[in-house]
Write a structure and sequence with these properties.
- By secondary structure, the protein is mainly α.
- The chain folds into 2 domains: about 1-150, no CATH class; about 155-244.
- About 85% of the residues lie in helices and about 0% in strands.
- It has helices at about 1-20, 25-35, 45-70, 75-90, 95-110, 120-150, 155-175, 180-205, 210-240.
- It is elongated.
- The relative contact order is 0.11.
C-alpha cells in the first residue's frame, strides 16, 4: 500500500510539473517516476535507481541524437532496434545505468517511428528534462514519506515475533504441534520472522537515525530470529519424529 501511494502521488506530481515545462511529452516524466519507485526499494537503493536513471538517460541522448539524425529506414531501422534491445537485455541486470543508455535511444527511435523529427534538439531536451523531473519528484515523494512514516518500527516487529514464538512454544510444550491452532501459530511465527528481517533491512536502507537504530538492535534481531526458527524446527521434528 505504501509503494502504491508513493507511485500514485509521484506520478500525479510529475505529470503536472512536466506540463508546466514540457507540455508535449509529460508522460515521460510520469514513466520515470514509476520506474524509480515501483519496486519498493529502500531509500539508498531508490536514490541509486533514480541517479542511474538520470545519468543513463542523459548519456543516452547523445546516442539517440546520432540515430535520429541518421534517420534509419526499412531493414536498417529493424537492425537498430534489434541491436539496442539486445544491448539492453545484456546490461539491464548487470548495470542499470548502461542499460538506460540504450533504453533511451530505443524509446526515442520507436517514438519517432522512422519519420524525421521536426525539432530534434527540442525533442531530446524534452526527454532529458522530463526524466530529471520524474526522478527528482519520485525521490522527493519517497523522502517525505520516509520522514512521515518510515519503515515499520523494529521494536514492534521484534515484539510481534517474540509473542508469536511464545504462542507456538505453548503448543510445542503440550506436544500438540499438529492441531489447527498450533499450525496457525506456526504459520504466524514464520510470517513474523520474515517480516522482522524485512523490517530490519528497510531500516538499514533508511535514514541515518533508522540505520543507527537498526545497528543497535541487530543482536536482538538475530537472537529473536534464531529463536523463532529453532521453535519452528522443533515443531517439525515433533510432528515428524520418523525423519529426525
Amino acid at each position: 500500500m505504501r509503494v502504491t501511494l508513493r507511485v500514485g502521488v509521484a506520478v500525479a506530481l510529475s505529470g503536472v510539473t512536466a506540463l508546466l515545462f514540457t507540455a508535449d511529452h509529460s508522460y515521460w516524466a510520469m514513466a520515470a517516476a514509476v520506474l524509480v519507485l515501483y519496486q519498493g526499494f529502500d531509500w539508498s537503493r531508490t536514490v541509486q535507481r533514480g541517479a542511474e536513471r538520470m545519468v543513463g538517460t542523459l548519456l543516452g541522448l547523445g546516442l539517440a541524437a546520432a540515430i535520429l539524425a541518421w534517420q534509419p529506414q526499412g531493414w536498417w531501422l529493424v537492425a537498430v532496434v534489434a541491436v539496442l534491445q539486445f544491448a539492453i537485455e545484456m546490461f539491464v541486470v548487470r548495470n542499470y545505468t548502461i542499460a538506460v543508455i540504450f533504453i533511451t535511444p530505443l524509446a526515442l527511435t520507436i517514438a519517432a517511428g522512422g519519420r524525421p523529427v521536426a525539432d530534434l534538439g527540442h525533442f531530446l531536451v524534452t526527454r532529458g528534462l522530463d526524466t530529471v523531473i520524474g526522478c527528482v519528484i519520485a525521490l522527493l515523494v519517497y523522502w517525505v514519506a520516509l520522514r512521515r512514516h518510515g519503515p515499520a518500527p523494529l521494536n514492534a516487529a521484534l515484539a510481534r515475533t517474540v509473542a508469536a514464538t511464545r504462542r507456538t512454544d505453548v503448543h510445542l510444550q503440550a506436544g500438540a504441534v499438529g492441531s489447527a491452532p498450533a499450525r496457525a501459530a506456526r504459520r504466524d511465527l514464520q510470517l513474523s520472522a520474515l517480516a522482522l528481517l524485512e523490517t530490519y533491512q528497510a531500516a538499514i536502507g533508511g535514514s541515518a537515525v533508522q540505520r543507527a537504530e537498526a545497528e543497535r538492535l541487530w543482536p536482538t534481531v538475530a537472537t529473536t530470529e534464531q529463536d523463532a526458527y529453532r521453535t519452528l524446527a522443533a515443531c517439525w521434528v515433533r510432528e515428524h519424529p520418523e525423519n529426525s
